[in-house]
Design a protein that fits this description.
By secondary structure, this protein is an alpha/beta fold. It has one domain: Rossmann fold (3-Layer(aba) Sandwich). Helix content is 32%, strand content 18%. It has 7 helices and 6 strands. Strand 2 and strand 3 form a beta hairpin. The longest helix has 17 residues. The protein is globular and about 50 Å long. Bound molecules: guanosine-5'-diphosphate and magnesium ion.
Length: 219
């Protein structure tokens, strides 16, 4: 069978946010029902998958974690490429992680524009990035029974409203609170956004250099 013509059945979801906010913990809680105080980035593993039912459809979520490289510009194009939903995570007890959400949001849009520019983003429509589905998670709501909380739910919801009414969930990866609900919503949004596209992608560097040889970016 020629895999390059197989329709995509996977939904790619990426987790973004500052180091330490609990991205890996949320993923482990959701996929493996496990929580540890001592997580280390898993080297070499780019993503994990989980199958779930969304309405009457069986979908496979492919969840990409950052493997400890949470610096702007440090995540390669392969990380962003073809994402169906971007999950932004902050820690409700650390204001700085909320302040940097703007940067993560902008970084994502910048990367999508770059990929569109080189013709390696599955969506043909240049304006699609404006409607790109993000979901915000405010994690670690369990800490100190909520007494060390620095960012109010109201403030978080205001930020979501200012960025085009993003869905918002408060979660605890430690206690498994709202984690399934949040990812089910992510899966729904990703599935609404699913592109009809080939499952096979050639290497990004190869494709970009081909585009460059053709005269580079047209936008
Ligand atoms: P990442 O860098 O965003 O992937 O964050 P990690 O998942 O590695 O989590 C950083 C630290 O926060 C770890 O020590 C986790 O055990 C802890 N942590 C993550 N989520 C929660 C949570 O919901 N509640 C509490 N109390 N600790 C958490
Ligand atoms: Mg991590």
């Amino acid at each position: 069978m020629d895999i390059s013509h197989k329709k995509r059945t996977l939904l790619k979801v990426i987790l973004l946010g500052d180091s330490g906010v609990g991205k890996t913990s949320l993923m482990n809680q959701y996929v493996y029902r496990k929580f540890s105080q001592h997580y280390k980035a898993t080297i070499g593993a780019d993503f994990v998958t989980k199958e779930l039912q969304v309405d009457d459809k069986l979908v496979t979520l492919q969840i990409w974690d950052t493997a400890g490289q949470e610096r702007f510009n440090s995540l390669g194009a392969a990380f962003y490429r073809g994402a169906d939903c971007c999950v932004l995570v902050y820690d409700v007890n650390a204001h700085k992680t909320f302040d940097t959400l703007n940067n993560w949001h902008d970084e994502f849009i910048k990367q999508v524009l770059y990929l569109i520019c080189f013709g390696v983003w599955p969506q043909a429509d240049l304006n699609d990035h404006e409607a790109f589905p993000f979901v915000l998670l405010g994690n670690k709501v369990d800490v100190d029974g909520g007494n060390s909380r620095k960012v109010t739910e109201k403030k978080a919801r205001e930020w979501c409203a200012s960025r085009g009414n993003l869905p918002y969930f408060e979660t605890s990866a430690k206690e498994g609170y709202n984690v399934d609900e949040a990812f089910l919503n992510v899966a729904k949004i990703a599935s609404e956004n699913e592109h009809t596209q080939d499952i096979y992608f050639p290497g990004i560097s190869e494709t970009v250099s081909e585009a460059e040889q053709r005269g580079g970016c047209a936008c």
